Structures are given as structure tokens and as C-alpha cells.
């Protein structure tokens, strides 16, 4: 079974969704036959190239009331082992990080890509790392088994840029409008950071080839609320 997860490093609910899906996968009887691949999506394609403090950027873009979303997701994270630190987090364009994930998948395989995805999310949301910086990204890549010099050279040039843009365009073309979105076998889609039990049920349905098409939830009116992030 192939599961393609559309998500953004800058999406807090994507971190929740990843963690809950992994909890479900650990309980799934057929987990050894599941291949998980991460696909790129950018919530804010025009995000700044120079990192800015998260809270400052969020309030400026969505208004002061948006800061309450940080409190909600922080509480959700505590229950599944995620330590959000929005006081130190910085916002930056995630395109370069998505390129690095493309390198991980194509040259090292899905398992290394998944490890890198986890490391990027933790770095961004818990450690205040600038995930748009080449040296920082190369260091994170090395921690997951990717050759540091290869990663740095790759990011310093344009390798993977065209492929990453094409993948971003494809996400829009197939109707992904909010993340995380989980696509099972290219047929069934589940949107949002659902509970682990929901993901487990879907895994079992797909394995049995009896699932009805699961229609993605309507994009929320506000950004990053109630389980997913939307434009």
C-alpha cells in the first residue's frame, strides 16, 4: 500500500498528523507492506526568504487573534509528544526544505525522507532553526544519514527545483487545498490531523479494498484550525 502525505514544514497540524498517522501505522497489522512518501505543499508560497520571528509574522499576516491558534496546537502537541515552542520559532520560505526532501526520497529512499521530515519539523517548531538556511539544512540532512557535502552542494544550486515546483503544481491540480492530506493508493484521501484511530480504520479499509472514496473535509475558514492548515 502506498500512502502519499501532502504537507508543509511550516504547518503545525502537519506535525500532529504525521505523529498520529505513525501511531496508527504502528498498530496496523499490515504495516510492513506500507510505503509512505511525503509530497510538497506550501501554505504560503510567498513567505519571506529571510527568516522572521513566528509570532511577529503570524500577527502581521493574519491579525493578533491568530496567536490563539498557537496555544491550541501547543496543547494538542503535548498529548502526542510534540513540544511546540512558538516563542523561538522563525518563519521562512519552505521551498528549499522541500527540495531537500526530494533529494532524500530520490537518492536515499522513503525511510530516510521520513526521518528527514521528522527532523525538519522538530527543528522548525521546537528548536527555532531557520529551515531556509543552506548550512542548517545540510546539518539536519547529515543527522538523518544524508551526505552533508552532497546536501549543501545540492541546495546551493538549482538541483531538484524544477521537480519540486512540478510536484507543488501537481498537488494543486489534484485538488489539495489544505494540509495535511493523506492519499491512499492514489484513490482515497483523508484531510487533517485526524485521530490515530481514524487513520487505523482507513488503513484497514484500504487493505481490504472495500473502502468507499473518502471525501476530504472542507477547508477551514481560518488558517491552521481544527486539524488542518489552509490558504
UniProtKB/TrEMBL annotation:
The record ties this protein, via CDD domains, to: DsbA_FrnE
Question: What InterPro entries would the database entry show?
Answer: DSBA-like_thioredoxin_dom, Thioredoxin-like_sf
Sample GO molecular function, one term: oxidoreductase activity
Q: Where is the DSBA-like thioredoxin domain?
A: 3-203
Coiled-coil ranges per the record?
none
Supply the Pfam families for this chain.
Answer: DSBA
Q: What is this protein called?
A: DSBA-like thioredoxin domain-containing protein
Native source organism of the sequence: Kitasatospora setae (strain ATCC 33774 / DSM 43861 / JCM 3304 / KCC A-0304 / NBRC 14216 / KM-6054)
Lineage from the top down?
A: Bacteria, Bacillati, Actinomycetota, Actinomycetes, Kitasatosporales
